[in-house]
Write a structure and sequence with these properties.
By secondary structure, the chain is an alpha/beta fold. The chain contains 7 helices and 8 strands. It has one domain (12-164): Rossmann fold, CATH 3.40.50.1000.
């Protein structure tokens, strides 16, 4: 996909990428077993993109309104250390995270899908909506990726940032 010079400039400065979970890293569906356990479906391509960002020194975080053991385990497996669950006031968490990492809005990308994500999306440099995001989120986003939540949207964002920042991978030689 081709990106405008403005989007490329914003992506080049990114040091932190924050993802919502339900509707971004998943398709937004909630699955429950007969005994009440929650099950989520994550996309392996999204996961590889996230782990590559982490491996190349770009901080990754999730801020989600729901709480789930599954999310904690998935993020741990990808090397994501900044996991904030049960946060209905995402902006407060966002501000605290920026202070902890000593970065500002111009260095942050946020990927969201619903109105709870708007307070951060209106502040960060690169706000991204997934293809099936709420219309008000799409209208506020710097970028709307052509992939739905849970179906490669996160990977599209990771690829944009890695491409613009010149991050390459050589998996054939066992090096990245």
């Amino acid at each position: 996909m081709e990106w405008s010079k403005d989007i490329q400039a914003k992506a080049k400065a990114i040091k932190l990428v924050i993802f919502d979970v339900d509707g971004v890293l998943t398709d937004g569906s909630l699955y429950f077993t007969d005994d009440g356990r929650e099950v989520k479906k994550f996309n392996v391509k999204d996961g590889l993109g996230i782990s590559l960002l982490v491996q190349h020194g770009i901080e990754v975080a999730v801020i989600t309104g729901r709480s789930s053991v599954i999310v904690a385990e998935r993020m741990k497996s990808l090397g994501v250390n900044h996991v904030y669950q049960g946060r209905m006031n995402k902006l407060e968490t966002y501000d605290n995270l920026k202070v902890a990492l000593q970065i500002d809005d111009s260095q942050v990308a946020y990927v969201g899908d619903d109105i709870i994500d708007l307070p951060i999306m209106t502040r960060c440099a690169l706000s991204v909506a997934v293809a099936d995001a709420h219309p008000s989120v799409q209208s506020q986003a710097t970028v709307v990726v052509n992939k739905k939540g849970g179906d490669g949207a996160a990977r599209a964002v990771c690829d944009l940032i890695m491409d613009v920042q010149g991050i390459t991978h050589d998996f054939t030689a066992g090096k990245q």
